[in-house]
Write a structure and sequence with these properties.
The protein is α+β, with helices and mostly antiparallel strands and 305 residues long. It contains ten helices and eight strands. 47% of the residues lie in helices and 13% in strands. Helix 1 packs parallel to helix 2 and helix 7 packs antiparallel against helix 8. The chain is globular and about 55 Å long.
């Protein structure tokens, strides 16, 4: 078996830089021949880049018998590893992949990662995912726009003199950032999203799906208004899903393209997906070849098969 170490190529703008970055950070050790396969479209806002990072690391850790104290600590580490590719993101995707619980929605806080609660997804409900067909490739044209969202958060923190955005009260950050509307909007979105996540978990716990839908609508609107990371396609998909009867719908991921989810009854999933696709392609016929629609329940964490 080959050994890690030596010169590992850097191919900027190419997907292979994600697993190669993991190999460089892993350092010396036993290597492995890895083959990557997927039934999901690439650059679709489905966290395929983070999946490459997580999957590569898990394979190398298995070969080298490396263990971590907790999945949360590993997720935080791999979020930092992915930043080595040039993507200034967090560790949310990695946490979802490593700490998921089948059939439930799991809530975490970050910096550091802390488990908060797990809320079962009610029986009879599934997620329909619409891949818009608008490429959201963080290693290509969208990288600068994607990183700018994170950069605004860092700039706000520098002005606030705080370690995290959660450390500043609304009155404080509104006072300090009043002359910086772009930064103020970024912090407003962060605090609003934190409140929405907590309230959405509460609504789901008590089975109040109508309130859940209203909260998710607000989250989508805030992304459009304050993050400015939505496209006309993702906005239309979220709106149309609600009009067609989805109990909740929102774009997700890094934005600037990508995908939208809709929460619908399992009994209606085929009809809903068909109508959603038909409506979308009527409005955006140029996406017919690249748009995809599929459905899923809340799945388990990454595992060895």
């Amino acid at each position: 078996m080959a050994r890690l170490g030596g010169d590992i190529p850097v191919r900027q703008g190419h997907w292979s830089n994600y697993p190669f970055t993991v190999c460089r950070r892993f350092g010396a050790g036993r290597g492995a021949d890895l083959r990557f396969t997927s039934d999901l479209p690439s650059a679709a806002g489905l966290s395929s880049s983070s999946a490459l990072v997580v999957g590569t690391y898990l394979a190398l850790a298995d070969v080298n018998e490396v263990a971590w104290a907790s999945a949360e600590e590993l997720a935080e580490y791999l979020g930092a590893v992915e930043s080595g590719v040039g993507t200034h993101g967090g560790s949310e995707d990695h946490t979802a992949m490593l700490c998921a619980r089948s059939g439930s929605l799991v809530q975490f806080s970050y910096a550091p990662i802390r488990y908060e609660r797990s809320v079962p997804l009610p029986e009879g409900w599934v997620f329909v995912v619409a891949v818009s067909g608008v490429v959201a490739a963080k290693t290509q044209n969208a990288l600068t726009a994607y990183n700018n969202v994170a950069a605004r958060a860092r700039e706000a923190l520098a002005l606030l003199g705080r370690g995290t955005l959660a450390d500043a009260s609304p009155d404080e950050f509104r006072g300090v950032l009043r002359d910086h509307p772009s930064l103020l909007g970024r912090v407003e979105q962060f605090h609003a999203e934190c409140e929405i996540v907590r309230a959405a978990g509460d609504a789901l716990s008590r089975g109040d799906l109508e309130t859940l839908g209203t909260l998710v609508d607000r989250s989508q609107e805030n992304a459009e208004r304050w993050l400015a990371n939505q496209t006309q396609e993702t906005i239309a998909l979220a709106r149309t899903a609600r009009e067609l009867g989805a109990i909740a719908a929102s774009a997700f991921g890094a934005g600037f393209g990508g995908s939208v989810y809709a929460l619908v009854r399992a009994a209606d999933v085929e009809e809903f997906a068909s109508r959603w696709r038909e409506s979308y392609l009527h409005a955006f016929p140029g996406r017919a070849e690249s748009a995809h629609f599929f459905h899923t329940r809340a799945g388990p964490p990454a595992s060895r098969i």
